[in-house]
Amino acid sequence: MAVASRVRHFLSIADLERDELARLLDEAARLKAAPPSGGLAGRTVALIFEKPSLRTRLSFDVGIAQLGGHCVYLSPAEVGLGRRESVSDVARVASRMADAVVLRVNAHETIEEFARYSAVPVINGLSDLSHPCQGLADIFTIRERKGPDLHGVAIAYVGDGNNVAHSLMLCAAKTGASLRIATPAGYEPLPRFRELAAADARSSGAQVLIGNDPAAAVTGADVVYTDVWTSMGQEQEYERRRRAFQGFQLNAALLARAKPDAIVLHDLPAHRGEEITDEVIDGPQSAVFDQAENRLHTEKALLCWLLGGQR
Ligand code: CP
Ligand code: NVA
């Protein structure tokens, strides 16, 4: 039987109200300016991952340690979610021992099923559909560089309409930013995320536009974002995608269409020479390593919010 609880999970940016997102980002800024040493004392967070990770694993592990908590990492080979043991049994066992679970999964349905059976907060550490922890760090970095009021800030996203794009769309829509997405035809974000973003945009004043022209998306932008063309789990599509995404590389010529003070974002890992050139990712406009560091601060704020009762 599923757990009937009032536990808050973080499976999607859509799980946050607009004012909750704003408060969480403010709290992350406070934690970045003055890192606390407590907050998770006596608490254990389990990381259960079906896919590899550098940033997500490291930022949660380090952040939990900085807050005085304990982290247990279970690698893709160890748990066998839904193979060695049913997802619902893993969820029930994990929630008897851990105070929260960060899950990285192949299929988003796995995390939804896990959350139905978990008596403790479940955090989406990436699924095929969304990457909300990345979205928090992305919008935090944009606020840090462009100011807290994102109305009128133009973000261009060039590349695949994937998990990272979905979470960015919802963040932009909740914060009032203007987001122009350019993907090859057939690689646009899924309709359900477009609908969620449109609903938030109506109340925040954001604009989320989706098209297929990278130059039009980037022209005049304050922020230019890209992600890999082939995500984890899509490796068999590599050649087809490489051909489909020709013309969508973030290179110096494309970046030159943005504002002179535009920043460049990439969630990493980057496939240098494919979706982004060395010149751009290592160039003076790149904010990608600040963006990576900001995973730590935003996830600490998220953990304190979910586990510390500060809502
Ligand atoms: N950006 C990100 O989530 O990186 P990892 O896959 O290394 O965790
Ligand atoms: N879209 C990428 C993000 C990696 C952090 C993937 O899913 O592989």
Question: If you had to describe this structure to a student in words, what would you say it looks like?
Answer:
This protein has 311 residues and is α/β, with parallel strands linked by helices. The chain folds into 2 domains: 13-131 and 294-306, Aspartate/ornithine carbamoyltransferase (Rossmann fold), CATH 3.40.50.1370; 134-291, Rossmann fold (3-Layer(aba) Sandwich), CATH 3.40.50.1370. It is 44% helix and 14% strand. It is built from 13 helices and 9 strands. The strands form 2 sheets. A 5-stranded parallel sheet has the order 7-6-5-8-9. It has a 4-stranded parallel sheet with strand order 2-1-3-4, sandwiched between helices. Strand 5 (154-158), helix 7 and strand 6 (178-182) form a beta-alpha-beta unit. The protein is globular and about 55 Å long. The two termini are 29 Å apart. The mean pLDDT is 96. The protein binds phosphoric acid mono(formamide)ester and norvaline (NVA). Phosphoric acid mono(formamide)ester is lined by residues 53-56, 126, 134, 267-269.
List the helices and strands and how they pair.
Elements: H1 18-33, E1 44-49, H2 55-66, E2 70-74, H3 76-79, H4 87-97, E3 100-104, H5 108-117, E4 122-124, H6 132-146, E5 154-158, H7 163-175, E6 178-182, H8 191-204, E7 207-211, H9 214-218, E8 223-226, H10 238-244, H11 252-255, E9 263-266, H12 278-281, H13 288-308
Parallel strand pairs: 1-2, 1-3, 3-4, 5-6, 5-8, 6-7, 8-9
Helix pairs in contact: 1-6, 1-13, 2-13, 4-5, 6-7, 6-13, 7-8
Bound molecules: phosphoric acid mono(formamide)ester and norvaline (NVA).
Residues 53-56, 126, 134, 267-269 line the site of phosphoric acid mono(formamide)ester.
